[in-house]
Write a structure and sequence with these properties.
Blueprint lengths: L1 E6 L5 H9 L3 E7 L3 E3 L4 E3 L2 H9 L3 E3 L5 H10 L3 E5 L7 H4 L6 E5 L11 H8 L3 E8 L9 E8 L6 H24 L31 H10 L6 E5 L2 E5 L3 E3 L10 E4 L2 E4 L5 E3 L2 E4 L5 E2 H6 L11
Parallel strand pairs: 1-2, 1-6, 2-5, 6-7
Antiparallel strand pairs: 3-4, 7-8, 8-9, 10-11, 11-16, 12-15, 13-14, 14-15, 16-17
Helix pairs in contact: 1-6, 5-6, 5-7
């Protein structure tokens, strides 16, 4: 079966590898254009584009699936398109090209967390269980009928990055199994049912920690936005990037945002009990332990995060 693979970030690479390992003929890869990365803003291929180049697969770079890209896809005559975090909308004209449509691997249990950041929102919401599904792509936002489902426990210390890494591998197996079922004529898509929730892309403002919220909420947000966009706060007008915090229910006497150094632990008050900071990255500097950062400050007793 001829497969067009659409994907961009590193979490899509295991799916590309899984389809090739299952014997599918991946005729081309559709991915986002090279993007500037690092301090020097060097144009860099997407992880999927880089992997396709290693494998000798042709790459179509497209920020938007317009008439030209649609024509190129039609020339490839794919039987099916597999899509994993491509990062752009697929118009109806493109959806209609493959005989078996576009099959999307999505990292949530639809209809929960429809949108661009399902894993981040699941962690921030405190979900106990999440997962991944394969579904038939439609013009609506993650609304299509579901072929297959897998579940994954969310651990108390999971960051969105760690959880997404696990799902990228188990989801890759699910995607290959779904395409195999489609090829064999044994796939059956079932309409979604249940409560709908949305997971829009997170902005840098969404990653700012609000110390007036309860510690559990602060901790979940910090884990949900790690590694991207990255949790942060401000101190004396300067932005500080923070790695996930540790809940400290034994400390109740710190006001929201108040910083204290106790027995080598850097604590911050919240709307409930304190949290312990792990690592901090001041603007323009490298990530360091919270204790090392505090030692560079003049007066810990008067420190308050904004």
């Amino acid at each position: 079966m001829r497969v067009l693979f659409a994907g961009t970030p590193a979490v899509a690479v295991p799916s590309l590898d899984a389809l090739l390992g299952a014997g599918f003929d991946v005729v081309a890869v559709l991915t986002r254009p090279d993007a500037p990365l690092g301090r020097k803003r060097v144009l860099t291929p997407s992880p999927v584009a880089a992997r396709a180049a290693e494998l000798g697969i042709g790459v179509i770079h497209a920020a938007k699936v317009d008439a030209e890209i649609i024509a190129r896809i039609a020339e490839l005559k794919p039987d099916v398109a597999a899509i994993v975090a491509y990062g752009g909308l697929i118009p109806r004209a493109a959806l209609d090209i493959p005989q078996h449509g576009w099959i999307n691997l999505h990292f949530s249990l639809l209809p929960a967390w429809r949108g661009a950041a399902p894993v981040q929102h699941a962690v921030m919401a405190g979900d106990d269980v999440t997962g991944a599904v394969t579904f038939l792509l439609e013009e609506g936002l993650d609304t299509g009928p579901v072929f297959g489902t897998l579940t994954e426990k969310v651990h108390d210390d999971d960051t969105s990055g760690g959880l997404l890494e696990r799902l990228s591998h188990s989801g890759a197996v699910l995607l290959a199994q779904t395409l195999s079922a489609v090829e064999a004529g044994a796939a059956a898509a079932v309409p979604q049912s249940g409560e709908v929730s949305l997971a829009p892309k997170l902005s840098i403002d969404d990653a700012r920690l609000d110390w007036h919220q309860p510690a559990l909420t602060v901790g979940r947000r910090a884990r949900g936005v790690t590694p991207e966009p990255g949790a942060w706060t401000t101190f004396e007008g300067q932005r500080l990037k923070l790695e996930p915090v540790i809940l400290r229910p034994d400390t109740l006497d710190l006001e929201p945002g108040r910083v204290a150094l106790r027995e080598k632990a850097v604590l911050v008050g919240t709307g409930s009990h304190a949290v312990e900071l792990t690592r901090i990255q001041p603007s323009g500097k490298k990530m360091m332990t919270a204790a090392d950062w505090v030692r560079g400050q003049t007066s810990v007793e008067s420190m308050v995060f904004e």
